[in-house]
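User: Reviewer 2 asked us to show a designed sequence for the structure in our supplementary figure. I'm pasting the structure tokens here. Could you produce the per-position amino acids so we can include them in the response letter?
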């Protein structure tokens, strides 16, 4: 009998999961509201529905008598998809994150209120937009959108126009003091008391909180490893995070204080899981996650390879020809790997990069040289 894994979301950055499912000899069922979602061509079956329509998705699965063949429900999408995953998996009596925890993690403001002490934070109505009394710069956060899409940096009164388009989705928004420091992302999986933490990645973001680049350096990793990993374990325990893959977003301020931005209870996409993590660790993050959700054993030990790695995101295609020539010039050594991923078919309003470059090298000198060239 064929065994199916349901994938909530079928966008460009979820293709890594769909490919790995096929490689491990499982079948996939993708759910996405976009009729021509790019992940559908890698799926065995597709359901064209909004991932927020949980009851309808369950009905569709049962109508086609697929529910008895489904062994796992997973996602590489943002926070709200995690609620869909937990809801469907609970209905089908499959392994999943506790639904109550998934619902709590969606509410970023509750998570931050619980753990981020000493930061100025206040809730406002949209009619109070001109009454904000937190010094510039500050961050506006919106519950209706996950990740960077639900956050805007405000540096002056002119920037307030950025948040007026959110008023039809949110009755309230949250204003928080902007913290300068290192923006970090910690990836892992958890099953009861067993935790595997893969890496610490440093992120460079723009004012729209979209990724400009994600960097891994072994020296940076070891600098933060013990303190950051201990903090993440504490957060997971205190939020009762019981099962699944996750991405924890942190800020380490200039004075060493650690603040949490959010916990994404999903298998992170954006080429981090399928390209970056396997190269800088001895683990296949996606394969580990599939094993976890399907009840197979995984190796909870992790080893960091001595590689310097970069994912750099570009939101227009003007520099692509120049960078392509640059890649050909420097990627002729066995010590350097450069990959270009083009995402031109994605509608720009969804906020995804037009193209992405991945770079890694064992040589710090060569890595920094090419990284500098890519930034010019």
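Assistant: Here is a per-position design you can include in the supplement:
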């Amino acid at each position: 009998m064929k065994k199916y894994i349901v994938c909530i979301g079928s966008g460009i950055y979820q293709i890594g999961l769909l490919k790995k499912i096929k490689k491990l000899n499982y079948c996939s069922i993708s759910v996405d509201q976009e009729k021509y979602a790019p992940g559908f061509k890698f799926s065995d079956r597709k359901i064209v529905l909004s991932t927020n329509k949980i009851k309808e998705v369950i009905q569709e699965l049962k109508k086609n008598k697929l529910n008895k063949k489904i062994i796992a429900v997973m996602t590489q999408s943002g926070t709200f998809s995690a609620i869909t995953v937990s809801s469907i998996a609970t209905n089908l009596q499959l392994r999943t994150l506790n639904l109550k925890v998934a619902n709590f993690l969606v509410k970023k403001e509750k998570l931050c209120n619980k753990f981020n002490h000493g930061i100025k934070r206040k809730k406002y109505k949209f009619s109070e937009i001109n009454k904000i009394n937190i010094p510039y710069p500050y961050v506006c956060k919106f519950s209706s959108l996950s990740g960077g899409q639900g956050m805007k940096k405000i540096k002056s009164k002119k920037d307030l126009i950025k948040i007026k388009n959110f008023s039809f989705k949110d009755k309230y928004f949250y204003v928080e003091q902007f913290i300068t420091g290192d923006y970090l992302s910690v990836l892992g999986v958890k099953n009861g008391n067993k935790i595997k933490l893969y890496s610490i990645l440093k992120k460079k973001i723009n004012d729209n909180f979209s990724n400009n680049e994600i960097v891994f350096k072994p020296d940076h990793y070891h600098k933060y490893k013990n303190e950051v990993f201990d903090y993440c374990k504490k957060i997971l325990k205190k939020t009762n995070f019981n099962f699944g893959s996750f991405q924890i977003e942190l800020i380490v301020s200039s004075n060493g204080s650690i603040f949490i931005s959010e916990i994404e209870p999903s298998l992170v996409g954006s080429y981090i899981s399928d390209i970056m993590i396997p190269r800088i660790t001895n683990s296949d993050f996606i394969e580990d996650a599939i094993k976890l959700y399907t009840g197979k054993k995984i190796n909870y030990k992790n080893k960091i390879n001595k590689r310097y790695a970069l994912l750099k995101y570009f939101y227009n295609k003007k520099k692509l020809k120049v960078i392509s020539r640059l890649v050909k010039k420097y990627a002729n050594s066995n010590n350097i790997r450069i990959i270009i991923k083009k995402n031109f078919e994605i509608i720009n309003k969804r906020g995804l990069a037009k193209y992405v470059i991945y770079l890694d090298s064992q040589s710090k000198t060569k890595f920094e040289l090419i990284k500098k060239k890519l930034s010019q």
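For the response letter, you might also mention the following. Residues 4-96 form a domain with the Rossmann fold fold (CATH 3.40.50.20). The CA atoms of residues 122 and 133 lie 9 Å apart.
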